[in-house]
Write a structure and sequence with these properties.
Growth Hormone, Chain: A; 2 domains; mainly alpha
Amino acid sequence: MPPLLILTYVGFVSLGLPDAVLGVAWPSLRTAFALPQSALGALLVATGVGYFSSSIAAGKLVDRLGVGKLLTLSSGLITGALLGYATTPVWPLLLLCGLIAGLGSGAIDAGLNAYAASNFTARHVNWLHACYCAGAALGPLIATAALATTGSWRSGYAILGAIMLLLTTAFAVVKGSFRARAAAAEEGQQEAPAAPVPLAAALRQRRVWLGLAVFFLYTGLELLLGQWSFTLNTEARGVAPETAGIWAGAYWGSIGVGRVVLGLAVDRVGADRLLRIATLTALLGSVLFAVGPAWPGAAGLMLAGLGLAPIYPTLMSRTPARLGPYTAHAIGFQASAAMVGGAVLPSLGGVLAARVGLPSIGTLAVITAAGLWLLHELLVRSTPPRVTSDGA
């Protein structure tokens, strides 16, 4: 495997590392700053604003800086934010760190996805998303081990900050290689890409809006389960923190494993048929998580993770066939909708947890999963038969 491809895989691992840690750290962090459950929403919104801002500008930043330099600078921002989490004495500064982390993550996500789509095969792009899940699974395990060993949520962030510092250094050393490969690919291109259609024309397409809604609900459900399962299990179901942390990491791990395995099966099963099976599986897992205490709930959490696994990358891969000339706009819209969903639905979970109780998290997950299944069915049925991959 080429070294640059390996480093791109590492980049996706680094993107996932800090994303799921908050779910483990939140109970201790909330106690340290004397915060209500709903305060999680403020931190998620701050991170989301940073992510949205940098992802929107990522195209111009890549043109000006190149992927390698952008990856280095963005990783540096995440490193600084993680070390800030570990040391900040007041809640407003922690919100600022969330904003900075979002700026770094949004630029890495958009830049690496654009680079991978242009330079690597679809199989590798699918597995790159699995590497994100590997990082998201490893992060809670590191945070849980640090919390159990030191009794402080800050130590986990300090360890992750040190890891990100090493990765930032590695990206800085090889940053020129990304530009060299992109230039070589451009020289080998036979035809210039077609000019994109007007933005207004894309916004008039019903399938574009259905796609936005599906990505909004998908990412909202993924992060709702990922961010709140630890708190729900420890504070409402009496699960030991060490066990709940392992379950939280296993949830992200199930998404990663599912992407590797189901990514190999998508051509045989058919993209739309696989997505239909996946959305139903996510719904079943969410129901089991909502109604089952302790171990049954944990089984539901893992089942939901397996169901969610292929949805994001497979939906992205279907966008060019489904939307044709509107693809360039649609992919940007979908990424933005995913970010908004990832901020809004977990934040809504915090509000419900504070006003109704933590079990309402499970109810919200079931409603979201049902909506995801329904809207995907509408999306498939709105797709012309000539671009339906498997007759589903």
